[in-house]
Amino acid sequence: MRRLLLSSLFVCFTFPQAMAAQLHMYAGAGLRPPIEKVIEKFEKETGNTVTVEYGGSGQILTRFELTQQGDLFFPGSEDYVEKLQAKSLATDAYPIVRHIPVVAVRKDKSQGIATIEDLAKSNLRLGMGDPKAIALGRSGELLLDASGYGDQLRDKVIVRAATIKHLSMYLLNGEVDAAIIGCADAMKNQDKLLVLPSPEGSPEEIATIAVLSTSAAPKEAKLLAEYFAAPEGIKAFTDYGFLPVTTKK
After folding, report:
1. pLDDT tens-digit readout, 208-245
2. N or C, which end of the chain is more exposed by having fewer CB within 10 Å?
3. Strands (DSSP E) along 43-173, which ranges?
4. Read out DSSP for 113-160?
5. Is 25 helix (H, G, I), strand (E, B) or coil?
6. How many CB atoms lie within 10 A of CB 5?
7. What is the signed CA dihedral for 237, 243, 246, 249, rounded to 10 degrees?
8. How far apart, in whole angstroms, are the C-alpha atoms of residue 58 and residue 224?
9. How far is Cα 219 from Cα 234, in angstroms, rounded to an integer?
10. In degrees rounded to 5, what are phi and psi of residue 171?
């Protein structure tokens, strides 16, 4: 009888854990703070666990294509999700927030710099993201072209970072004087950074989460994607300076 009782208790306490899913998500490094906030809530309320593999959007796309394993993909641009959909590697997709590149200058280096034209004519050092590795690296190149000073500004580039997080650190540590980073990162550090007016025609990315067709737990993966797309999930991003999706591109 005692053995039967202990066996029953064992089943009662271990069954929910055995049924919990262990999800693997690929995500852009620049989205990390709000992602961790939403996942904390998801894990607490559902009992499922999530492992997140961060990197530049191009980097995580390469990693997934090599392994063909994982449950969710959350890059800084919808373009990467569309590439997966074209190969039938993504099922459901949810646009979450706008991910906008801006030109930020260190305030201690900003004397006489009020526009991108001023920056182009200065001797300041510029940092950018690697266009092959991260979404804002590619859209940063488009922003330079839209400014009309693309060639002059590219001559000032001394580093191309693999993630926006690294590029922001280079800027804040003074290893570069100006950089094209995400609007959210610039707003978070507005006491140290001056954001220059963006030229007409500047690009915008839309951070989009997708459920991967390789998911071993598609029901739970879709539930996590819906956590991000819910109003409270969107708020986790806008609290960090990201802008809501207002109209379809």
Report:
1. 999 999 999 999 999 999 999 999 999 999 998 899 99
2. N
3. 49-55, 72-74, 90-99, 101-106, 126-129, 157-161
4. --SHHHHHTS---EEEE-TTT-HHHHHHHHHHHHHT-HHHHHTTEEEE
5. strand
6. 9
7. -100
8. 22
9. 21
10. -70, -45
